[in-house]
Amino acid sequence: MKIVRSRMEFETKTQIEFVNITDRVAEAVEKSGIREGQVTIFSPHTTMSVVINHNEPLLLQDFMRILYRVVPVDDQYSHDLFELSRGMKSDGRSNGHSHCKALLLNTSETILVERGKMILTSLQTVFAVEFDGSRKRDLIIQVMGE
């Protein structure tokens, strides 16, 4: 079995952002030379998720509305108070809400690879979901198989 690991870097621009990474993951699969196996996309961040869903603008608005409703920005998060009370090094963000949103979604996704291509339907898109933007981010892509 062959294992090929790479890192994808990008920058987000808004607080919550669905970044379409499908083509970049497909490129990593192609470069790996693996024809049969699987690809895993992993977020090494506690305020970012990886999901597969439909890339339709109004649906993406619905996703964001639900995330803001379930985990509102203006609630009082103990995480934010903890950083302030402990004098911890902070980048100036009160981001307890971002951590809580990430808890609701996946840290990674695994997709089967067949004949050198990801098995996704025409309605499936791979997204990196930012909850604490704008930031410089990276994802780890690991392709395994033969």
**CATH top level?**
Mainly Beta
Q: Any idea what the CATH superfamily is called? A: YjbQ-like
CATH topology: Jelly Rolls
Distance between the termini: 6 Å
Total domain count: 1
Strand ordering within the main sheet: 1-8-3-5-6
Indicate the multimeric state.
single chain
Mean pLDDT: 93
Overall CATH architecture:
Sandwich
Shape: globular
Bin the helical content: 25-40%
Q: What fraction of the residues are assigned to beta strands by DSSP?
A: 35-45%
Number of helices: 4
Got a strand count? 8
- The unreliable regions are none
Structural classification: alpha+beta
The largest sheet is: 5 strands, antiparallel
What does this molecule look like?
- By secondary structure, the chain is an alpha+beta fold.
- The chain has a single domain (2-71, 95-145), classed as Jelly Rolls (Sandwich), CATH 2.60.120.
- The protein has four helices and eight strands; from the N terminus they run E-E-H-E-E-H-H-H-E-E-E-E.
- It has helices at 22-32, 57-70, 78-85, 96-104; strands spanning 2-11, 17-20, 36-42, 48-53, 108-114, 117-118, 125-130, 136-145.
- Strand 5 and strand 6 (117-118) form a beta hairpin.
- It starts with a strand and ends with a strand.
